[in-house]
Amino acid sequence: MSKINLDEIDSLHYDVLKELGNIGAGNATTALSQLLNMKLDMKVPKVDLVGFDKLASSICDEEELVVAIYLMLEGDIEGSMMFMVEKKAATCLVNQLMGRPVHDDRDFDEMDLSALQEIGNIITGAYLSSLSTLTRLTIAASIPYMSIDMAAAILSVPAIEFGKIGDKALLIETQFGDEVLINGYFILIPELASYDKILASLGL
């Protein structure tokens, strides 16, 4: 039986989860900055516990096309994680990586999709690395799966997968960029027992 109740989480535990979200997003932005070889500014992330039924609408219009990288977590922390950006933001990222004009609105070709996959791998890897370092817990991630679809369709996957153990996800919304600010969303869905391990590792 988990000691944490996400419906009645106290302010101390909530602040800790928010700080983990902040640090993870910062680490991911630094990794992306190195990949793109440019300085990226990042606004302080917004972190919230959101019900699965409100996830899509908390991010964008449910019919908005988005690019998502989804992976399963194993080891000391079990669950899943997703990184999501709107398709037009993903196009800006790929254009910057490929040295094209930022607002070049072309369709993704095979090389672009490969670049997007790599961006997703690096961002999620950096996020999980910082979480592992902070908590001193082992986190193994599956091979990431990338999807381009409407927000509601993509977010139905973790809702179905983890609706059995809980109904909330940790949503970390961050803005980063240089000439163009991009909204990126990390969605972390640990199993309830993993929340206990995370808080215990921090002495709570």
Automatic annotation (TrEMBL):
SUPFAM superfamilies: CheC-like. Coiled coil: none annotated. Gene3D superfamilies: CheC-like. InterPro entries: CheC (IPR007597), CheC-like_sf (IPR028976), CheX-like_dom (IPR028051), CheZ_family_phosphatases (IPR050992). It holds the Pfam family CheC. One of its GO terms (biological process) is chemotaxis. Transmembrane segments: none annotated. This is Chemotaxis protein CheC.
